């Protein structure tokens, strides 16, 4: 597994950690984007994974979806 990118995204006072990885599996290579934040003291995790050949389509879409995350603290 290779770490490609790490960043901390600020969304209306909510901090979201985001990491990207390349994962070789047998004869294919996969790309994974993992994101995490805290909601009311609990961890919220999410991820997108896809074949690395599709990174030009799915990476920007995944980042756009992460940036639309809305967390309501109770």
Description:
The protein is α+β, with helices and mostly antiparallel strands and 74 residues long. The chain is 18% helix and 59% strand. It contains 1 helix and 4 strands. It has one helix at residues 55-67; strands spanning 2-11, 14-25, 28-39, 42-51. Strands 1-2-3-4 form a 4-stranded antiparallel β-sheet, with helices on one face. Strand 3 and strand 4 form a beta hairpin.
Task: For the structure shown, list the relevant keywords.
alpha+beta; 4-stranded antiparallel beta sheet; elongated
Low-confidence segments, given as residue ranges, are none
Q: DSSP helix count? A: 1
Q: Structural class, from secondary structure content?
A: alpha+beta
Question: What's the rounded overall pLDDT mean?
Answer: 92
Q: Proportion of β residues?
A: over 45%
- What percent of the residues sit in helical stretches (DSSP H or I)? 10-25%
Describe how the helices and strands are arranged:
Elements (H helix, E strand, L loop, with lengths): L1 E10 L2 E12 L2 E12 L2 E10 L3 H13 L7
Antiparallel strand pairs: 1-2, 2-3, 3-4
Summarize the structure.
By secondary structure, the protein is an alpha+beta fold. It has one helix at residues 55-67, and strands at residues 2-11, 14-25, 28-39, 42-51. The chain has a 4-stranded antiparallel sheet with strand order 1-2-3-4, covered by helices on one side.
